[in-house]
Design goal:
Elements lengths: L1 H24 L26 E4 L8 E4 L3 E7 L6 E7 L2 E2 L7 H4 L4 E3 L4 E6 L3 E7 L6 E6 L1
Parallel strand pairs: 1-3, 2-9
Antiparallel strand pairs: 3-7, 4-5, 4-6, 4-8, 8-9
């Protein structure tokens, strides 16, 4: 009877040894952090420029902007943001009766999504309140001199 018991013990120990060795050879190693090429230049969100307004997930990065008459203003929606509906008005309420760029006066506003930009011409002097119909707390004023 000692022979079968010794054989079983030998087989169990051998199996455990093989399992331990296979786990050691399959250890998880982390890949190194990739290094960008030396000529790599980060790509900005589309749009931008001197008269640009960055739009974050739930707000305008700037709440006031003053530009000269006839200037273009570019609204740039960050890549990590969601959709926005921009219009003339305040606290999420669009008022198409307000004077301003036609894109912002259309019924319901103008929709822009992450990574997109919208460039508008401000041809007349005045004060233009701009809001987002999705996020009522998003408000800003563009003053054209």
């Amino acid at each position: 009877m000692k022979t079968p018991r010794a054989l079983v013990t030998f087989l169990i120990l051998t199996a455990l040894l093989l399992l331990t060795m296979s786990l050691a050879t399959c250890s998880i190693t982390r890949a190194s952090t990739p290094t960008p090429p030396t000529d790599y230049t980060p790509r900005p969100t589309p749009g931008g420029g001197p008269n640009s307004v960055e739009i974050t997930a739930r707000d305008f990065a700037e709440h006031k902007l003053t530009v000269k008459q006839g200037a273009e203003v570019t609204f740039v929606v960050r890549l990590d943001s969601g959709p926005h509906i921009l219009c003339l008005g305040s606290n999420g309420h669009c008022d198409p009766s307000l004077p301003g760029p036609p894109e912002l006066r259309q019924d319901g506003g103008f929709s822009v999504d992450a990574g997109q930009s919208l460039t508008l011409d401000f041809v007349s002097r005045g004060v233009y309140p701009i809001t987002c119909a999705i996020y009522p707390s998003m408000n800003m004023v563009i003053t054209v001199t």
